């Protein structure tokens, strides 16, 4: 019986094209990341020769190897006007800042207002005094972080009066307590008692509790040790602090509390030294 040669009945993959290899019709090779099929037997005719090869699969546009652009841990990839670029890691505490359309991102520093330190000073003692200004809570020595530091001061106390009242006063010292000055005093008006950074002046009756509160912002402009004090300015009659007037030994009339002075040090560019003004 005669043998009939049907020829190749399916394509055969031959791997990467080699110039010294003989190829026949329907051989498939790869070259330059593309795929070709032989349409005419030959040896040494490159895949670019359309008389011998037809392209089966074309490659797309080469992508960018971002590994050659960003090279270090913390790098960020962005595009500028010409292509991909590397933004190296910023310093600790910075944030990524956009500069708007048509501009490149940058690392930015947080503008003022960052809290540097917070201090709370408390006192449990009771006080009874008249016709004087008495410190009831005094801070320990504080060394400002920088000359730009500003301090937000909040004082709170409880008390009672015999008949007249008392005024809260914030006092500050830039020489570690050798001397003090009153912060943010009220306006001078004849014989009227002024508070210093306080919420006002109170008049109370016997055994009626009253509340003293004071606020202020201070810029000492030094890195030397400073101190703070919450004081009460008494008028003609006795002012009782952290107790009632009669101080009876009973649960309802023998009040005791805690006097507090809260001092917060912040970056000075975020605050104003004007009374009760904080810019954020």
Write a brief structural summary:
The chain is mostly beta strands and 280 residues long. Helix content is 0%, strand content 38%. Strands 11, 12, 14, 17, 19 and 20 form a 6-stranded antiparallel beta sheet that branches.
Q: How are the secondary structure elements laid out?
A:
Blueprint: E1 12-16, E2 22-23, E3 27-31, E4 34-38, E5 42-43, E6 53-57, E7 76-79, E8 84-87, E9 95-97, E10 106-108, E11 115-123, E12 127-129, E13 133-138, E14 150-161, E15 166-173, E16 181-182, E17 210-218, E18 227-234, E19 239-241, E20 259-266
Parallel strand pairs: 1-3
Antiparallel strand pairs: 2-5, 3-4, 4-6, 7-8, 9-10, 11-20, 12-19, 13-18, 14-17, 14-19, 14-20, 15-16, 15-18
What does this structure look like?
The protein is mostly beta strands. The protein has three domains: 12-57, Carbohydrate-binding module superfamily 5/12 (Seminal Fluid Protein  PDC-109 (Domain B)); 66-108, no CATH class; 115-270, Jelly Rolls (Sandwich). Helix content is 0%, strand content 38%. It is built from no helices and 20 strands. It has strands at residues 12-16, 22-23, 27-31, 34-38, 42-43, 53-57, 76-79, 84-87, 95-97, 106-108, 115-123, 127-129, 133-138, 150-161, 166-173, 181-182, 210-218, 227-234, 239-241, 259-266. Strands 11, 12, 14, 17, 19 and 20 form a six-stranded antiparallel sheet that branches. It has a four-stranded mixed sheet with strand order 1-3-4-6, with no helix packed on it. It has a four-stranded antiparallel sheet with strand order 13-18-15-16, with no helix packed on it. The radius of gyration is 42 Å and the shape is rod-shaped. The termini are far apart.
């Amino acid at each position: 019986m005669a043998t009939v040669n049907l020829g190749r009945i399916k394509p055969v993959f031959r791997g990467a094209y080699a110039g010294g290899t003989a190829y026949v019709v329907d051989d498939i090779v790869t070259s330059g990341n593309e795929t070709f099929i032989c349409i005419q037997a030959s040896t040494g005719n490159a895949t670019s020769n359309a008389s011998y090869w037809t392209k089966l699969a074309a490659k797309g546009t080469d992508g960018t190897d971002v590994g050659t652009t960003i090279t270090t841990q913390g790098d960020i990839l962005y595009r500028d006007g010409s292509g991909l670029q590397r933004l190296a890691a910023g310093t600790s505490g910075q944030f990524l800042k956009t500069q708007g359309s048509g501009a490149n991102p940058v690392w930015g520093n947080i503008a003022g207002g960052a809290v540097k330190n917070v201090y709370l000073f408390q006192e449990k003692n009771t006080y009874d005094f008249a016709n004087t200004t008495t410190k009831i809570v005094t801070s320990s020595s504080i060394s400002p972080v920088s000359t730009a530091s500003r301090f937000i001061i909040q004082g709170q106390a409880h008390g009672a009066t015999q008949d007249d009242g008392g005024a809260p006063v914030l006092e500050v010292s830039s020489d570690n307590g050798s001397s003090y000055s009153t912060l943010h005093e009220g306006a001078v008006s004849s014989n009227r008692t002024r508070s210093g950074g306080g919420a006002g002046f109170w008049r109370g009756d016997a055994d009626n509790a009253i509340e003293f509160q004071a606020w202020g912002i201070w810029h000492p402009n030094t890195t030397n040790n400073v101190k703070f004090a919450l004081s009460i300015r008494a008028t003609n009659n006795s002012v009782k602090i952290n107790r009632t007037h009669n101080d009876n030994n009973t649960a309802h009339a023998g009040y005791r509390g805690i006097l507090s002075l809260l001092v917060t040090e912040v970056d000075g560019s975020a605050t104003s030294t004007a009374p009760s003004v904080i810019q954020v």
